[in-house]
Design a protein that fits this description.
By secondary structure, the protein is an alpha/beta fold. It has 9 helices and 21 strands. A hairpin with a 2-residue loop joins strand 11 and strand 12 (195-199).
Length: 403
């Protein structure tokens, strides 16, 4: 490893570092930095040369450096193994259950490894890099993970820059590659809360199961017995499977992608649940809600967990601007006293603003919404108190009222 060079920060970046924030955002000062390449270690200093932190350089990104330590360090196998071992120990204490073998092992900034995540899927690991600075160190990461956990295999899923613009058909493309070990089956079965789910470590931008909703689904299962459930933006139907397994009288799953609907049916089958007893609708959620309202359909529980951004032939949805309209479209099909589980993973929408969107939607529909609980991501998705961006997941369980 080469020498570690210093990079001078402007006053605002110094202030943010002193507040414990791990990112250096590109500005007029960073534009004057000496040339460097992604993966270089740099020492961050103020205008007087005072050492502040050691960071991983990513000069082409908006986040040009990410803090690894508030002291000097050598990024080698020993340092990385210790940081990874700390992350694994946290999960052993807080997460591991006999009924679950899919969860996050490393959560980037939340585990002192900014820009790097590692998820466990059964006997396999999935590495994702959100910072090009990790690319030169990837082999080091893989060796450390192999030594620590002895997985059957380790995959990486690449994160294209144009993720938002990619069509649903992208989930038939291979974004995953095997880095070490034996290949996983095309559809790998993992366990969550005692249920089986099929994931793909190779195809698609995502694996088919959003791990950050594990505890939300666990709590959700206690709410749905004997209820009529509507699951919007259902993806591969994880909430639908949870509802059916928990004794919901009927489950209606809606997603614009027929591919996801088939994957959802397969998830029902993986749990010996008869998907023919339930309803699957491939279509735009807004259009389907309009049809359901026109038919006079009513549901006791509605789940709305839309992507932050989605585009279909007929509509364009963003969490920042579309949540209130979605709530207004949902409430006419939600029975009086029924439950709405509303969720957003949009990092830039903070909880108070999200609750305002729910309020706007309720007022637009002429209904009341009683907030029963507000939760976020589970313990395997930790974040530093100095890094508010890490608290991205917002889930509000609400009850429809007439007042």
């Amino acid at each position: 490893m080469g020498s570690v060079t210093a990079r001078i920060l402007g006053a605002e970046s110094v202030r943010m570092l002193e507040l414990g924030h791990p990112w250096i955002i590109a500005d007029s000062y960073t534009k004057r930095w000496p040339a460097g390449k992604a993966g270089d270690l740099v020492e961050l200093v103020d205008a007087n040369g005072r050492f502040l932190a050691t960071a991983l350089l990513d000069p082409a990104d908006r986040i040009v450096a990410r803090v690894l330590e508030w002291r000097r360090l050598r990024l080698d196998g020993a340092w990385l193994a210790k940081r990874l071992a700390d992350a694994v120990a946290l999960r052993r204490d807080l997460v591991l259950r006999e009924d679950t073998d899919a969860f996050r092992l490393v959560n980037g900034e939340g585990d002192g490894l900014p820009g790097l995540t590692v998820d466990r899927y059964g006997d396999y690991l999935m590495v994702q890099i959100y910072c090009a600075g990790w690319r030169p160190h990837l082999k080091l990461v893989v060796r450390a993970l192999e030594g620590l956990l002895q997985p059957a295999g380790i995959y990486e899923k690449s994160r294209p820059q144009n993720t938002r613009e990619l069509e649903a058909v992208s989930d038939s493309k291979s974004y995953g590659r095997l880095l070490a070990g034996a290949p996983a089956p095309p559809r790998l079965t993992v366990r969550e809360n005692g249920l089986n789910f099929l994931v793909s470590l190779e195809l698609g931008l995502n694996t088919g199961l959003f791990l950050d909703h594990r505890e939300t689904r666990r709590a959700f299962m206690a709410q749905v017995r004997g209820k009529r459930v509507l699951n919007l933006f259902s993806y591969t139907c994880a909430f639908s499977v949870a509802a059916a397994a928990a004794g919901a009288s009927s489950v209606t799953s809606v997603d614009v992608s027929p591919t996801y609907m088939e994957w959802g049916r397969a998830n029902f089958g993986a749990n010996r649940l008869n998907h023919k007893r339930h309803e699957f609708i491939a279509g735009d959620s807004f259009a389907v809600l309009s049809d359901l309202a026109r038919q006079g359909r009513r549901f006791d529980v509605v789940v709305m967990d839309p992507p932050s951004f989605s585009t279909t032939a007929k509509s364009r949805f963003t969490t920042r601007k579309g949540t209130s309209d979605l709530v207004a479209a949902v409430l006419p099909v939600l029975a009086d006293g029924g439950l709405l589980l509303a969720s957003s993973n949009h990092q830039k929408v903070e909880l108070p603003d999200y609750l305002k969107e729910l309020r706007r939607g309720a007022l637009q529909a002429g209904s009341g919404l009683q907030v029963l609980a507000v939760t976020g991501q589970p313990a395997d998705f930790p974040y530093p108190v100095t890094f508010p961006e890490g608290r991205y997941l917002k889930c509000a369980l609400c009850r429809k009222t007439a007042w």
